[in-house]
Amino acid sequence: MKTKRNYGVHLFFIVMVAGIIYPMLFIGGNSFKSLKEAYHTVLHLIPKDFTISNFTYLFENLPLLQITWNTFFIATITTVVKLTIAFFAAYSFTYYRIKGQKIMYLVVIGTLFIPFTVSMIPNYLLVSKVNLIDTSWGVILPQFADAAGVFILTQTMRGIPKSLFEVAKLDNIGEKDTLFKIVFPLTRHAVTSTGIWFFITSWNEFVWPVLILKSTERYTLPLAMQTYISSEGGTNFTVAMAISLITMLIPLLLYSAFQRYIIGTFVSAGIK
C-alpha cells in the first residue's frame, strides 16, 4: 500500500514538472519554425524545417541589442541598489537597539501587503514631475527599496551567533570590519540568492516599464515581446516565440547556476 502511495506521489510530481517544462520547450520549438509550419504543427516541439528567420526578422526590425542592453542595465542597477539597501537595513534591524525599532521593522515588512496598484499612480506622478518619463531611470528609481529583501536578510542575520560579535568587541574590531569580515561572509549565500531573485524580477517586469517607456529604442525585452502579441502591433506568433526565448534565456541560466542558494535561502528564512 505504501509503495502504491509513493508511486502516486512520484507520478503527481512528474506531471507537475512536465507541465512546467513543456511551455519552455514549446517556446523553443516554435521559435525555430516558419509561421506557416507553426500554425499547422503548433503542438509539435521539433521543427520539421529548422529556420532562424524569426531571429533575423527581430534584428532587422528592432534595435534588439539596444533593447537587451536596456533590460540588462535596468535589472543590474535595480539589483545592486536594492541589495545594498536591504543588506544595510537588515544589519541595522538585527544588531542595533533603538527606540521603536520593532515598530519600524513591522512597518517596513507591512509594505509587502500593499498592492502595486496603490503606489503606481503616486510613483508615476513623481517620475513625471522630475521629467524621467521614457527613460531607464524612470523605471529604476521607484524600485530602489524592497521589503522582501530586508526580511530575508534579517532572518539570515538573526541566525549568526551573538558570541561572534562579543568576541569581535573584545578584540577591538571596528564596525566596518565586523560588517564586511564577519557578517557578509556568513550571509553571502543569502545575499547572492536574493540578488539573483531581484535581477530576475526586474528583468521580467512589464507593468511599470510599459507605463514609463514610450520609445522603441527605450524598450525592455518584455515590452518588445508585447509588440508582436498585441492587437496594436499585430500577431506574429513565431517571432513572439523567438523574442520570448531570448527574454527567458539569461534569467534561466542564472537560476540554473544558483538555484541551490535561492531555495536554501527561502527555506531557512521560512524556518527562522
Automatic annotation (TrEMBL):
GO terms for biological process: transmembrane transport. Pfam families: BPD_transp_1. It is a multi-pass membrane protein. Keywords: Cell membrane, Membrane, Transmembrane, Transmembrane helix, Transport. The chain crosses the membrane at residues 7-27, 67-91, 103-125, 237-258. InterPro entries: MetI-like, MetI-like_sf. Its main location: membrane. One of its GO terms (cellular component) is plasma membrane. It is found in: Cell membrane. It comes from the Bacteria. PROSITE patterns: ABC_TM1. Belongs to the binding-protein-dependent transport system permease family. This is ABC transporter permease. It comes from Vagococcus fluvialis.
